Amino acid sequence: MRIIFIVLLTLWIAFGLVVLNNMDIRLYAQSRIINNVDHLPDFGYVLVLGAGRNYAFSRPNYAFIGRMDAVAAIWKKHPQLQLILSGKSDGDLYNEPQDMLRSLNLRGVPTKNCLLDSHSYTTFESVKRFQKTFGFSPIIVSQKAHLERAIWMAKTCGMNAIGFQAYGYPGGTPRWIIFREYLARIKARLVVWGLIKSKDFNKK
C-alpha cells in the first residue's frame, strides 16, 4: 500500500506541476496577444514561426495556412515591417522558410520584405536566434497555444514580444495538438532552465 501511495502522490504532484507551468505561461502571454492588425505596435520585425505546408498524403496544414494569411494581412497594413520566416530545413525536400516565402509571394508579399532563417528546429531556437541576430522585441505570429509559449520564451530571452494570433483549424484545435502543447511547455521550461540543451546559435 505504501508503494501505491507514493506512486499516486508522485503522479499527483507531477500533474500539479504541469498545470501550474501551463498557467504561468498562459497568464503572462494572454494579455500580449493581438488579433487585429490595426492594433499592432511598430516593432519593426515580425517573427513567423515555421510549420509544415502539408501533412502526410498532401493533406493541408491549417496552421500553416492560417499563419500565412495572418502575415499577409499584417504586411498589407504595415508594409514597412521586416518579416523573419523561421523554421527548419533538411534541404530541397523539406524547407519551411522557403515554403512560407512561396506562399507569401502568392499572397502578394514581396521577397524583399522577407528574411529566411532555416536553422531553427524548435520554437526556442527561432526566438533565441532572432534575439541574438536583431536584439529587438518582435511581433510573433502563430496560433494561440503556440503563441503563448513563444511569447513566454521571448521573455526569458530578454524580449518584450507581442503576439499576433493566426487562425487555425476550422473545427477547433485537435486534442492531440492540445496534448502536445502541454508536453511542449514542459520541455520549454526545461530548456530555459538549461536542463535540455539547445543547438549552437552561432550557425549562419
Order of helices and strands: HEEHEHEHEHEH
Mean pLDDT equals 92
Query: Considering DSSP H and I runs of 4 or more, what fraction of the residues is helical?
Result: 40-55%
Strand content: 5-15%
Distance between the termini: 57 Å
Please identify the top-level CATH class: Alpha Beta
The tally of helices reads 6
Strand order of the largest sheet: 1-6-5-2-3-4
Low-confidence stretches: none
Radius of gyration: 18 Å
At the fourth level of CATH, the homologous superfamily is HUPs
What does this structure look like?
The protein is an alpha/beta fold and 204 residues long. The protein has a single domain, classed as Rossmann fold, CATH 3.40.50. The chain is built from six helices and six strands, in the order αββαβαβαβαβα. The protein has helices at 2-29, 62-77, 96-106, 123-134, 144-156, 175-192, and strands at 33-34, 45-49, 82-86, 114-117, 139-142, 162-165. A six-stranded parallel sheet has the order 1-6-5-2-3-4, sandwiched between helices. α3 links the parallel β3 (82-86) and β4 (114-117). α1 (2-29) packs across α6 (175-192). The longest helix has 28 residues, at 2-29. It starts with a helix and ends in a 12-residue tail after the last helix. The mean pLDDT is 92.
